[in-house]
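thought: user wants a sequence for this fold. calling inverse folding tool.
action: design(structure=
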């Protein structure tokens, strides 16, 4: 039997261990291939501006870098779990050089098949993503054979697996033969977390949160990098120090440690937290990136759509009379040509040298009637208007108690009215019709409100907005925003989902790699009389800790990151941000429910074997 035949037969006989590593590498290939296929999709690449295309290329590089570390980490866990096997091979006469050669060949073979199969699976997965994107965000992308993406994937991952096959040799356990042979039988000793480093984790994360949440909006981009550094470092200490110290403290509480099956759950929990600290750290950071990416894009789109949707009129024209008159004439002729009946309202807004805007009572009430809003009565005084929309929150002018008219007379402001009839970004007041404003400059405005028109007809009429910045069309503007954001939102959601699913794969692979240890532990206590129900409960608790510990941390990180982003617009956390976080929590919960079922069935079958 040649050395190559030995490697192949050894791989086949240990297919369960190799399968976990193979599936993790296949997943990394599939993700990269799918994203690259989208990046070079004609409909996406032609529909994006230069900045968005650069963003997609940057995202592809990030995903490739992420794939490198993901595969390297998976291989590292795979190698460390085979210490006893390596000891047996060495006692049979295998030299360290042959051992390294075996690992090199194994990794190349697994990498080759993972690249080929991952690319094939990626074609099907990309079609699923295209189908879902068409149903959820109405991005219609036709099928095309991603030849360019396949070539790039094959070349990129050939280099990646070659590099990993080289670097992984330096990660082989450098232990004595006796130590390798007893790797599965030796206890882990004692472990203690550092209280000082645990306290430092709280301080670093607390400072990072405080700076992010308390910084004024304009300073958020400036403090972003220091905050990220503090939170990332604090998260590292949180998992490998504070969590271990906290578990050891809980174990010292007899009323907790000795309760029912807690003794078994807590017995090696500190070791698991220490062993999984790197996994938890990576998962929490990756998930936070996913939350922030999708939350920012989705929320920003919703804010812009909210500002457009706050317009109470379908069509609006405002500006200097010389500029608006030709547009008014052309649009009115178009409405007449198509036989469209509309409610029309004309108004004037006057502006003084202090940038105070005035609108007369009759003009305001004419607009209010068209918009279906209550009319107001000024009673010889003035009423200040405030913008009553979510987007305008925080940008409103300060309330005033009086305004100065052109004749130097002071007019009292009796109250403030929140409404959406006019966009208000500076002090704007409604004054009596008798007020003399002729000495002030003014802008002419006109609104049109059609009835019983379909969305397609409104979009067609709204094309009059093109090239005329004074003219605005509500439905047409909304459609243009959606069309321009669809590709970017699609890419952002895809990257976020990729990172989040990758984080879940990290956790499942780690759970799978510890299965042998779990089987031996549960087999011993099962023989002592542990019931199936108690076994299931302990396994569910163990899997829940693994899956939800990092996700809880990442949700908190994500909420702080999104809140800081909203501060740029002088707003607090919005519903769109909570929706994104809620969806990811539900996905993780579903992931946990599926994983615990499969894991319990596998462990229970091996225990009874």
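)
observation: tool returned 609 residues.
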């Amino acid at each position: 039997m040649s050395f190559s035949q030995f490697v192949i037969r050894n791989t086949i006989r240990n297919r369960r261990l190799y399968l976990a590593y193979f599936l993790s590498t296949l997943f990394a290939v599939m993700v990269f291939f799918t994203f690259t296929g989208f990046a070079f999709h004609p409909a996406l690449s032609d529909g994006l501006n230069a900045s968005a295309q650069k963003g997609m290329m940057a995202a592809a590089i990030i995903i490739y870098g992420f794939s490198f570390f993901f595969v390297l980490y998976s291989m590292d866990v795979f190698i460390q779990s085979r210490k006893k096997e390596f000891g047996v091979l060495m006692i049979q006469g295998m030299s360290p050089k042959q051992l390294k050669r075996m690992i090199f060949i194994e990794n190349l073979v697994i990498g080759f098949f993972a690249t080929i199969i991952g690319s094939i699976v990626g074609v099907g997965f990309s079609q699923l993503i295209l189908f879902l994107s068409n149903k959820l965000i109405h991005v219609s992308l036709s099928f095309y054979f991603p030849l360019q993406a396949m070539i790039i994937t094959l070349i990129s991952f050939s280099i990646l697996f070659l590099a990993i096959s080289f670097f992984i040799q330096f990660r082989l356990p450098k232990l004595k033969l006796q130590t390798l042979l007893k790797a599965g039988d030796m206890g882990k000793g004692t472990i203690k977390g550092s209280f000082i480093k645990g306290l430092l984790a709280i301080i670093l994360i607390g400072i990072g949160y405080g700076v992010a949440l308390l910084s004024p909006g304009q300073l958020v981009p400036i403090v972003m990098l220091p905050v990220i550094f503090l939170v990332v470092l604090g998260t590292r200490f949180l998992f490998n120090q504070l969590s271990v110290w906290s578990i050891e403290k809980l174990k010292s509480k007899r009323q907790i440690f000795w309760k029912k099956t807690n003794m078994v759950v807590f017995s090696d929990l500190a070791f698991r937290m220490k062993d999984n600290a790197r996994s938890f750290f990576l998962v929490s950071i990756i998930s936070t990136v996913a939350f922030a990416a999708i939350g920012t894009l989705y929320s920003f789109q919703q804010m812009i759509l909210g500002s457009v949707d706050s317009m109470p009129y379908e069509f609006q024209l405002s500006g200097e009379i010389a500029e608006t008159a030709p547009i008014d004439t052309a649009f009115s002729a178009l409405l007449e040509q198509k036989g469209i009946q509309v409610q029309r309202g004309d108004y004037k807004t006057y502006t003084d040298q202090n940038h105070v805007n005035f609108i007369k009572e009759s003009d305001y009430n004419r607009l209010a009637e068209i918009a279906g809003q209550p009319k107001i009565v000024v009673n010889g005084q003035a009423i200040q208007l405030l913008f009553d929309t979510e987007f305008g929150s925080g940008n409103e002018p300060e309330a005033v108690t009086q305004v100065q008219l052109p004749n130097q007379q002071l007019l009292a402001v009796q109250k403030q009215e929140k409404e959406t009839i006019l966009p208000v970004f500076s002090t704007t007041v409604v004054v009596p019709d008798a007020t003399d404003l002729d000495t002030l400059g003014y802008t002419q405005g006109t609104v049109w409100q059609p009835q019983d028109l379909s969305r397609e007809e409104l979009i067609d009429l709204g094309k009059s907005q093109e090239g005329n910045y004074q003219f605005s069309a509500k439905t047409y503007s909304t459609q243009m925003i959606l069309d321009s954001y669809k590709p970017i939102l699609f890419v952002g959601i895809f990257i976020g989902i990729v990172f989040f699913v990758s984080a879940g794969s990290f956790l499942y692979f780690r759970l799978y790699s510890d299965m042998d240890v779990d089987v031996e532990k549960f087999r011993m206590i099962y023989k002592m009389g542990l019931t199936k129900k108690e076994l299931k409960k302990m396994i569910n608790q163990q899997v829940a800790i693994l899956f939800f510990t990092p996700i809880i941390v990442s949700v908190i990180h994500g909420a702080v990151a999104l809140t800081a982003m909203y501060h740029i617009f002088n707003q607090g956390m919005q519903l769109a941000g909570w929706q994104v976080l809620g969806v990811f929590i539900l996905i993780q919960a579903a992931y946990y429910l599926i994983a615990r079922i499969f894991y319990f069935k596998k462990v229970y079958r091996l225990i009874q074997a």
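thought: summarizing for user.
answer: Here is the designed sequence. The longest strand covers residues 342-351.
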